[in-house]
Amino acid sequence: MGxxxxxxxxxxxxxxxxxxxxxxxxxxxxxxxxxxWARPLRVLPDGCADLVxxxxxxxxxxxxxxxxxxxxxxxxxxVGVRLxxxxxxxxxxxxxxxxxxxxRLSDLWGADARRAEEVLALTPDPLAQRGILETLVxxxxxxxxxxxxxxxxxxxxxTRTSEIAVGLSERSLRRHFVHAVGAGPKQLHRVRRFQxxxxxxxxLSAGRxxxxxxxxxxxxxxxxxLGRECRRLSGSSPAALVRVAEKFQTPxxxxxxxxxxxxxxxxxxx
Length: 270
Hints:
Layout: E1 13-17, E2 27-34, E3 39-43, E4 49-53, E5 58-62, E6 68-72, E7 77-83, H1 88-92, E8 102-104, H2 106-109, H3 111-121, H4 126-138, H5 146-155, H6 170-181, H7 185-198, H8 201-205, H9 211-217, H10 223-234, H11 238-248
Antiparallel strand pairs: 1-2, 2-7, 3-6, 4-5, 4-7, 5-8
């Protein structure tokens, strides 16, 4: 977990905004963050892919099965757009298992991405930078597989993978999932359930819920099962994640990044 090395005023900031209505099929949200202090930033898995401008390069960051550590300097300011889970392959034009956790976008989009980097470098305003990224995505005219999007939406609830009905056999659904998400339905179900747990950190830290009760409500076999999943997907125990929520005294939960916030794509995403 990141521990502030500077006064409270220097703490990091992370804000999300809804995507333009025309891009809701492919974008979960846009966001802007400032680091506050130098540290390895932990990015927790959510099955999504982000286009991230860090002031130097435009990259694709993917988290599916394990937490990712990215070193960020104290002065870092980042702007990004988050592709909807299940939409990234269509937008990026590549099968998701072929991508490493971090990829330079110019390796995928060539001159389009390089021109966007040039424009972003000349644009200091984060709002305008986010608009550039949204325009870049809009030009792709991507058409995600709506069967996969419907299945992903179902997995955002307590629906079991065996209960998904989107007109595909179990084998075909897995093949489409792996291409579009980078993981099969069962793995994504684990990740989505973990993200639902993260949204309950605030009531847990405030004493309005118990780990045993939350584990049962989310469909874990027991509290130990919840603990094992937390360690696999975040590197921390449930109690450690609750302590982070207590430390920052915020009404919103730790989610995709290692600072508390409400991820828009999980309100319906980080």
